[in-house]
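Protein modeling request. Please complete all fields; requests missing the sequence field cannot be processed.
Requester role: graduate student
Desired output: 3D structure, token encoding
Chains: 1
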Amino acid sequence: MEDFSELYELYFKDVYRYILAISKDSAIAEEITQDAFLKALKQIRKFKGRCSIRVWICQIAKNSYYTYVKKRKNLSSLEEVEISTEVSLDEEIIRQENLLEINREFNNLSEPYKDVFYLRIYMNLSFDEIGEAYEKSESWARVTYHRAKLKIRSKVVEG
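Delivered output (159 residues):
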């Protein structure tokens, strides 16, 4: 149990910021983060070590958030996710188009592009860590992230 409390101390802020970036609500982010750590504690024996523990807990948190949203029949909150101006998506895109349009296109991304983009931008995970989370290679993560950016860029420029 002491080891798990160390994990909690190490990764709470990362998981909380990730969920806050998705939910844009500090109360929800705190609730989901707590829930994710509870689930992780219950499922720690199932952790296979194929990715970092931080990535694993973030995946649990993301799934908990989506379940939370579905239960509340509040799918619109998923569409309220904004790409923060603090995040350097791509200076050219930001100069050319407004954030609302970028956000709309980001929300239209399919999986795994949307998740990979989140993990890279909001969690600042390395491509290697992202690849581990999906049991894929670092190259796969790089290509998927690059394609997500291209999809956003092409829709914004064409739009």
